[in-house]
Amino acid sequence: MLNWIWLGLIIIAIAVATGRDISELSQDRFRNGKALPLTVLATKQVSPDHYSSEVILLRSDLTTFYDPSDIRTLHSDTLHLTVEQTYAGVASFALPSDALKVWQDMAAAQGDEKRVTGIAHNSQTPGALLFTPDPVKFRVLAKVANDGLLKSADTAVTIILGLIGVMALWLGIMKIAEAAGLITLLAKLAKPLMVRLFPEVPPEHPAMGAMLSNMAANFLGLSNAATPLGLKAMEELNKLNPNAGTATNAMCMFLTINTSAITLIPATVIAIRLSLGSKNPSEIIIPTFIATIIALICGVMFNKFIQRFFPIKEAND
After folding, report:
1. pLDDT computed for residue 194 by the predictor
2. How buried is residue 72: exposed, middle or buried, by Cβ count under 10 Å (0-12/13-18/19+)?
3. What pLDDT does residue 174 have?
4. Which among 17, 40, 43 has a CA at the least distance from the CA of 109?
5. 62 and 74 in contact (C-beta within 8 Å)?
């Protein structure tokens, strides 16, 4: 089911991006192939094949060339730019602090968020320079594909490879603890509290044992072991359910405790921090332990409040 949800989200993202790109192309937002006239104040030769020109643009000229909504970031009536160009006509200029919104999107689509590239040539009007930016097409779709899908996939693989070593270490340690009977010991210690949290579940019922084992596994960070135990606990709790298809108080309480489980060693998060270059990845152990205790207390109190004031009505036989 989750795979279909992700597929649906990807299709929606591609459809929305394509729609925006078609809208921009139909409105000719970037004026592809059209030259923007620049007024040259001074030109100097930096090298035999490199020229630098100081140019200005008037707000009135920009308003007639671009859509007014794309020049809202311009605070003055005159915009000063420095155009760098080669003898072959390849040119670019750095975005000013109050760069037009259309230029910001154009630069990002061209691959450099700080510069707009294009072709420049002299105009028939003395002191004027014509600058034609490189065309921009389907920029949103390209951003979704490159920065969204492909970059996310690359990041996911990088993180996963970085997790292998740390996860193998901690899972091995926790497996030893499980074989040594530590989970069973924790389950026995938590049993008196469990009887009070789940009064409708008989103390010797298999559901109680499965829930205790699940919580102990979560406490030690054994997420792989905790998952089947949690499913087993829900299966056993469902056998005590008088209303088929409706979650009981015990089911809701167990789900809350399982979701906000107290975690002693957050091995997965530590591994992620380590793979991303954290200098002290294990410093979150104490904050995580405190946060999960608070979350568990709040969750249990909220469940008890709901159970007291909004009790589940049993189905009529």
Report:
1. 82
2. exposed
3. 59
4. 17
5. yes
Rounded to an integer, what distance in angstroms lies between the CA atom of residue 183 and that of residue 177? Answer: 7
Render pLDDT for 11-53 as a digit per residue (tens, 0 to 9): 888 898 899 989 989 999 999 999 888 888 888 888 888 889 8
pLDDT at 92 (0 to 100) = 92
Residue among 41, 42, 39, 82 nearest 61 (CA): 39
The letter for the amino acid at 288 is T
Residue carrying the six token digits 């405190």: 290
Q: How far apart are the first and last CA of the chain?
A: 33
Task: Indicate left, alpha or beta for 138 from its phi (over 0: left) and psi (-120 to 50: alpha).
Answer: left
Name residues of the chain where pLDDT drops below 50. Answer: 315-317
For residue 90, the one-letter residue type is: V
The alpha carbon dihedral of 257, 6, 20, 108 has a sign of: positive
DSSP single-letter state for residue 70: G
Please classify residue 241 by burial: count the beta carbons closer than 10 Å to its beta carbon, then call 0-12 exposed, 13-18 middle and 19+ buried: middle
Question: What is the amino acid identity at position 303?
Answer: N
pLDDT of residue 19: 92
Amino acid found at 212? L
* Sequence letter at residue 121: H
Looking only at Cα atoms, what is the longest distance across the chain?
A: 96
